[in-house]
Amino acid sequence: MTLDRPRVLILGGTTEGYALADALAADGRWDPVSSLAGRTANPRPPAGAMRVGGFGGSDGLARWLRDEGIAAVIDATHPFASRMGWNAATACAAVSVPLLRLERPRWTPGPGDAWSLVADWDQAVAALRQMRAQRVLLAVGRQEVAPFAALPDVWMLIRSVQAPDPMPAFAHAEVLLARGPFSLDSEMGLLRTRAIDTIVCKNSGGATDAKLAAARALGVRVVMRDRPVRPDTATVASVDEATGWLERLG
Ligand code: NAP
After folding, report:
1. Which atom of ligand 1 lies closest to the CA of 141?
2. Is the Cβ atom of 83 under 6 angstroms away from ligand 1?
C-alpha cells in the first residue's frame, strides 16, 4: 500500500474502468485499485492494483473500504450491473467515503429508428409477440437468452462471445459466436443475409453502435431494454470528469 497517495477503489469490469485505471496510474497523484467481479477467466490486468471477486454485499464492502484505507470510490461498473451500484452507495454512506458514478451515456433513438422500449425481458418477449416478429437477432448476453425460448414460432440468431451453457430449448435458433465491436458493413451484411426483422438488445450505451445504425438503414425494428434503476449518486460520463472530481476532493 502506498501511504502518501490517496487510494481510489475503481469498481470495474468495463472499458471505462480500465481507462480510469490507466489515467490515474499515469497521473501519479492517486493509487488506484481496480475491483473485478471475477466473471471472466484470466481478465486483462488493469493499470495499478487489482482485486477479484465479490466483497460479500454492502457490509463486506464497507469493511473492505475501512480496512484498506480507501479515500474514494468510483463505480465504473456496467450500466446493467446495478446491484454493485446499490451496494457501493450503502457501503460508502456507512463509512463516509465519497462515491462517484462513471457511466457511459445511453443510446437514444433518432429519426428513422423504430424502437420499442422495455423494462425487462418478459416485456421484450411480449413485444416480439405483439409485433409478430419472425427472425430476431438476440444480442442480450449468453446468460439472458432463456426467456426468449418461450417463442416457438420465432427464429432466433443468438449472438454472444461464448455459447449459452446450458442452452435453453429453442425451437429454431442459430448461435453465432462473435465479439464486438462490429463494423456497419458487417452488421448490414448480417441483418440482410439472415433476413432479420427485429433486434433485441440492452441499452449499454457508449460509442455509436453499428447494429443500431444498420437497423436504422435497413428499417429493422429494435426492442431496447432500458437500464435498471440505480441509486442517486453523483455521476460523470468521462474519465477527465472523474479525475476532476478526485482533484476537488483534495
Ligand atoms: P451486479 O448484478 O451489479 O453484481 C452482482 C454481484 O457481483 C455484486 O453484488 C458483487 O458481489 C459482485 N460484483 C459486481 N461487480 C463487481 C466488481 N466490480 N467487483 C467486485 N464484485 C463485483 O453485476 P453483474 O451484472 O453480475 O456484473 C458483474 C460485473 O461484470 C460488473 O463488474 C460489471 O461491470 C461487469 N459487466 C457486466 C455486464 C452486464 O451486462 N451486467 C456487462 C459487461 C460487464 P458482492 O455482493 O459479493 O460484493
Report:
1. 40
2. yes
The answer, yes or no, to whether any atom of ligand 1 lies below 6 A from the CB of 23, is no
Is the beta carbon of 46 within 6 A of some atom in ligand 1? no
Say if residue 1's pLDDT is above 60.
no
For the CA of 61, the nearest atom of ligand 1? 48
79 lines ligand 1 (CB under 6 A): no
What 3-state DSSP class applies to 94?
Answer: helix
- The pTM of the full predicted model, rounded to 2 decimals, is 0.91
- Give residue 6's identity as a one-letter amino acid code: P
Percent helix, strand and coil across the chain, each to the nearest 5: 35, 25, 45
14-35 in b/e burial notation, b at 16+ Cβ within 10 A? bebbbbbbebbbeeeebbbbbb
Sketch out the chain's domains with CATH numbers.
7-104+229-249 (3.40.50.720), 115-225 (3.40.50)
Answer whether residue 103 shows pLDDT above 90: yes
Residue 141 to residues 32, 120, 179, 221, 246, Cα–Cα distance (Å): 29, 14, 11, 19, 33
Q: How far apart are CA 245 and CA 86, in angstroms?
A: 20
Among left, alpha and beta (phi > 0; psi -120 to 50; other), residue 56 is: left
CA of 54 relative to ligand 1 center, distance in Å: 8
* Substitution candidate for ligand 1 out of 83, 90, 142, 227 with most atoms within 8 A of CB: 83
pLDDT of residue 39: 86
Mutate to test the pocket of ligand 1, among 77, 101, 160 (most ligand atoms within 8 A of CB): 77
CA 185 to chain CA centroid, nearest Å: 24
- Structural element, H or E, at residue 136: strand 135-139
